Amino acid sequence: MMALVRAEWFKLMRQRRTYWAFGAILLIEALVLLGAYFQGTNIIELLLDNLRKSFYFEGNLLNGNLMVYLLLNTLWFHLPLILMIVVSGMMTNEYKDKTLHALFLQPLSKRPLVLAKYVVAIQFTLMVLLFLAGSAVLFSYVFFGRGDLVVYLDSLNFFTDAVARERIAWAFAFGGLSMVFFTVVSLTLAILIKEAMATWIAASFFLVFTNLLLKIDLGSAFLNRWFFVKLMDSWQYFFLAEIPWSVVGFNALLLLVYTLLVMGLGTYFFMKKDLD
Question: Do 153 and 239 form a contact (C-beta atoms < 8 A)?
């Protein structure tokens, strides 16, 4: 199994799109930070215009913590799309180049091979998320400094610098579960569809579908609580005045169950389907 994982890592890091993914993340971060640098002060003034009539604010609210929060909101659609394109290639390239046929000329079982791909997909997702978190924090703090964080979620919530950094760390941690779910879905779609372009379209549709339903009341307390689309923005709970830990824990566990179910589904179909 470890040999298969190392082989999958080698193939993944040989793909040019893997490095394009890191470049795209840095470019998106740069665009957000540049936009905030030139327009951020106006946005903050507009947000707090009415409150300044009743409260006195001291210090710079356009700071690194706010930039990291903005990057979180901006990249939570773009990042899974980038990851899904890269990860699905781990399977579609194998079908296209017919390397799977060569592999199974050896005494190799399908199950460990597909599980190795899922393991590497998850590891790669977490690596990219750490890269995003590290670069976002580094660039935001270098260019904007530290300070208190103001967030509007139903109401304005204010966090000191230390508390803000803790909440941001928790948000990235939960976000990792969401990103892993999307990459596992993309690999499963690649197993089912096989062709790269069709897989990318299906993965993009799945992502758009999820984001659309996320904002819609499904008209059922059960669906609003248990349907996977309603779990994707649970990282926002960490920016409420009081974190609902019971809800966060339930959503994290449920999202993990969905991820394992999708992985099991992909493994089952890979073992049952012909390679042609």
Answer: yes
